[in-house]
Specification:
By secondary structure, this protein is of the alpha/beta class. It has helices at residues 4-16, 27-40, 104-124, 148-153, 202-214, 263-275, 299-307, 323-326, 352-368, and strands spanning 44-49, 55-61, 69-73, 93-95, 98-100, 131-136, 161-165, 171-176, 178-187, 230-238, 248-257, 281-289, 292-293, 312-316, 332-335, 349-351. It is elongated and about 80 Å long. The chain starts with a helix and ends with a helix.
């Protein structure tokens, strides 16, 4: 049986352990999760570290195996706390039904829910038709290279269904935008600042290119759960000194695109736009994730929706790790019980009622699915 007081204490304990990423210091919270799972005496517990001090923790509740396996996966790292908090981000407090602290919504509340469910199932000694796997992962906030990506690539995780606990307000993410993170470098010609006509100002050219990208006409089909594609210029630098014509400018772009769009064609279109302004440039792709979607009629999705009326279908403009399951042909969704608009903000919080009802609903789904 889900124990509300235990769930709240567990969430507070997890928040109080700093696991900011960067720099990537999940070791202490991973040790806490591992020891808690071992005390349950039900799950098989293993850890997998792909870089020093960053262990992923996996607990497996063995079932009859007749229905395969179900993965629940929250992440253990958080973004840095940053400044402008009115309260200590690592001393969680409850006020007016809200539990405050870094990671309360993203993603330690969801981590606590999954661990409470494992505790409850272990205490009840229920043998399910499926194995239930809980993977508490590292490095989600900086790309999952030391976490979910390697766990899947090395076939450490091979579930039949995957539920990523990294969402808010009972939303069931069945569609997700793809992303391309890329750097553009513009090369000009240096000259004295008093004679700009003798040089080629890379900053000025970059500003025109950025304007062109802002007016880019994407070709796409409207999606029921996702907004139109977007471009964000997140970082820019260039030049050496105010009285020198800048011969160099670099900017970084975050581009989000819809299912059905071809990333190679998008990049080809962008290169054509840049080359119309300047011939000397480079474009380097730092990260590319393809879009993801799963049918709302899938048995997996129907089972989730039937377990609690608060679950609703949704799309994600941002990136969760569900995209990594696509290449392994594993049906996946993201859901969770954080509070909308609270991820990554100062004075982050989660509604206690969300966590408790979420734990009840998710345990019901696991027993029935």
């Amino acid at each position: 049986m889900i124990n509300k007081n235990r769930l709240i204490k567990l969430t507070k304990d997890l928040i109080s352990i700093n696991s900011e990423n960067p720099p990537g210091q999940e070791a202490k919270v991973a040790q806490y999760v591992k020891e808690l799972m071992l005390r349950m005496k039900g799950p098989i517990v293993r850890t997998y570290a792909f870089s020093k001090g960053r262990p992923n923790v996996i607990g497996i509740l063995k079932g009859k195996g007749s229905k395969g396996s179900l993965l629940l996966s929250p992440h253990m790292d958080t973004v840095p706390a940053g400044k402008n908090w009115k309260r200590d981000p690592f001393k969680p407090k409850i006020s007016e039904g809200r539990l405050f602290g870094r990671g309360a919504t993203d993603c330690k509340g969801n981590l606590a829910v999954s661990l409470e469910i494992m505790q409850s199932l272990s205490e009840e000694k229920i043998v399910l038709n499926r194995d239930v796997i809980i993977a508490a992962t590292v490095d989600e906030e900086t790309g999952s290279h030391e976490g979910m990506i390697k766990l899947l690539e090395r076939k450490i995780l091979k579930p039949h269904f995957a539920m990523i606990l990294d969402s808010d307000d009972f939303k069931v993410i069945i569609a997700q935008k793809g992303l391309i993170h890329f750097k553009v470098k513009i090369f000009g010609k240096k000259a004295h600042g008093a004679y700009p006509d003798r040089g080629v100002n890379a900053i000025e050219i970059a500003s025109r290119v950025i304007g062109d990208l802002g007016n880019l006409n994407f070709h796409f089909r409207r999606h029921a759960y996702l907004k139109a594609p977007t471009i964000n210029i997140g970082k820019i630098s260039g030049g050496e000194k105010v009285n020198i014509v800048a011969d160099y400018c670099e900017f970084e772009v975050d581009l989000r695109f819809l299912p059905g769009m071809n990333p190679a064609q998008i990049l080809k279109q962008i290169k054509k736009i840049i080359s119309s302004r300047i011939k000397k440039f480079s474009l380097h792709v730092d990260s590319l994730q393809v879009p993801y979607e799963i049918s709302k009629r899938h048995t997996f999705i129907r089972g989730i929706l039937e377990s609690d009326k608060r679950f609703t279908l949704s799309g994600s403009e941002g990136a969760t790790v569900i995209t990594f399951f696509k290449r392994h042909k594993i049906p996946a969704v993201a859901t969770g019980f954080g509070s909308g608009g609270c991820a990554h903000i100062a004075d982050e919080y989660v509604k206690v009622s969300n966590l408790y009802r979420g734990a009840l609903a998710l345990e019901k789904f696991i027993k029935e699915f």
